[in-house]
Design a protein that fits this description.
The structure holds 2 protein chains of 2 kinds. Chain A is built from 3 helices and 12 strands; from the N terminus they run αααββββββββββββ. Chain A has helices at about 1-25, 25-55, 55-100; strands spanning about 105-110, 120-125, 135-140, 145-150, 155-160, 165-170, 180-185, 190-195, 205-210, 220-230, 235-240, 250-255. The chains are: A alpha+beta, B mainly alpha.
């Protein structure tokens, strides 16, 4: 009986092995087999997943809650790290400016912004104890930002470039044309008192002229975005986009002459 | 409302104004939470206390401003005095009336502050002037009901 069974089994096994061998070795057979078996297998997988979901509902629920908490924690950590990363980038830029700048500078952090809509300024965490005095220029690694208007022992008030009370002697880098750069409380500055034949055009870079001892010559103020004519018609003015984003200063550098 | 409670609220509003409020600027304009404190004091405190409180808030605000020192002290005192006198004749009970009152006061405050700046020789483009005057007053007026709601929840 054993022999008989073996005799019947051998051709069957041979055929099976042959088929497997063929299906593995001949690529052309794999595609139809996979195509035919895809739907039943997909259905089976779907049923298996749904059944698993029902059977392990409580386990999944607990797992989901745990993962949600973990996700929240990770998101919080990611935000914190992102903030540190951005701060690190800013400080690196400031340090680089500090090292390469020919001026002696004191780095300070912005702590307060004045409350009213009629001035533009900020308060920094360094004051007269650190050698900061009224009238000194304030900049960031991007360019000129403003001027110190008041100091206490450990703080100093900075009037930003876009405050209407602040006027700086500016210079068109390309043509050396001079003008007075003033704030308008808006996002842009205005360069006034340009003669009718002034050599200035959109895209020109404006730098500090150095006429005022407080502002060293060559500090970047901004770029000309528009040119117009005064109401009087006697002179022209240029609208200047400041190099520094004045509404988002977090660290500043005070230039010590 | 007790003076101590209002002092704590004014301090909280002041600190918020000086540190975080610039993140909530709309078209470059922020509400004046110091003025909100003055209006609250004028509506809720007795006459003399309200005026002294408003003057103190004015000193606090002017200490951090870049403009001429004293303008806010003077104006806050005047607004407080006028509101305290007006309350005896007109009843201001609902939040809408309070917000409207704050809007009018903020509008006058902004016009006077803006004109003072312009008359001191500074050029302010008309668009920016109008934006700071009207939008600033509107923003300040709209913030009051929200603050009153928060205060009510925390106090009661």
């Amino acid at each position: 009986m054993f022999n008989l069974k073996n005799k019947k089994l051998i051709p069957f096994l041979v055929i099976v092995f042959l088929l497997i061998f063929l299906s593995i070795s001949i690529t052309i057979l794999r595609a139809p087999i996979l195509a035919v078996s895809r739907q039943p297998f997909s259905l089976f997988t779907f049923l298996q997943r749904e059944l698993g979901g029902l059977l392990f509902y409580h386990h999944n629920l607990v797992e989901n809650e745990r993962l949600s908490r973990e996700n929240e924690l990770l998101r919080y950590k990611l935000n914190a790290l992102n903030e540190i990363y951005l701060e690190n980038a800013r400080l690196k830029n400031n340090l680089s400016f500090k090292q390469t700048s020919p001026f002696r500078v004191i780095a300070a952090r912005v702590i307060i912004r004045p409350a009213d809509n009629w001035s533009s300024g900020l308060v920094i965490d360094k004051g007269s104890s650190q050698g900061i005095k009224k009238g000194q220029a304030v900049c960031t690694f991007l360019g000129l930002a403003g001027r110190i208007v008041e100091t206490t022992g450990s703080t100093a008030k900075v009037m930003l470039l876009n405050d209407p009370n602040l006027g700086i002697s500016g210079l068109v880098q390309r043509s050396r044309q001079e003008g007075l750069v003033c704030g308008t409380l808006g996002a842009n500055l205005i360069m006034k008192y340009l003669p009718d034949d002034a050599d200035i055009k959109t895209g020109d870079t404006i730098i500090s002229s150095g006429l005022n001892a407080a502002y060293p010559k060559g500090l970047l103020i901004g770029t000309v975005v528009d040119i117009g004519r005064d109401f009087s018609g006697l002179s022209r003015f240029a609208v200047v986009k400041p190099a520094v984003d004045l509404s988002n200063i977090e660290e500043a550098l005070v230039i010590i002459p | 409302m007790k003076l101590s409670t209002l002092t704590v609220i004014a301090l909280a509003l002041g600190l918020f104004q000086l540190t975080f409020l610039h993140y909530f600027k709309v078209f470059g304009v922020q509400p004046d939470l110091f003025l909100v404190s003055v209006i609250l004091a004028s509506l809720l405190l007795p006459e003399r206390r309200a005026i002294i409180f408003s003057l103190a808030v004015g000193i606090f605000k002017d200490a951090f401003t870049l403009n001429t020192f004293g303008l806010d002290i003077l104006l806050f005192g005047i607004w407080s005095f006028l509101i305290v006198k007006a309350i005896r004749k007109v009843s201001i009970e609902d939040n809408l009336s309070r917000a409207l009152l704050l809007f009018v006061v903020a509008l006058l405050h902004n016009i006077i502050s803006g004109l003072a700046l312009a008359y001191s020789g500074n050029f302010i483009p008309p668009g920016i002037f109008l934006r700071a005057v009207f939008l600033g007053a509107l923003y300040t007026g709209l913030v009051l009901p929200l603050i009153l709601k928060i205060i009510k929840v925390r106090i009661s």
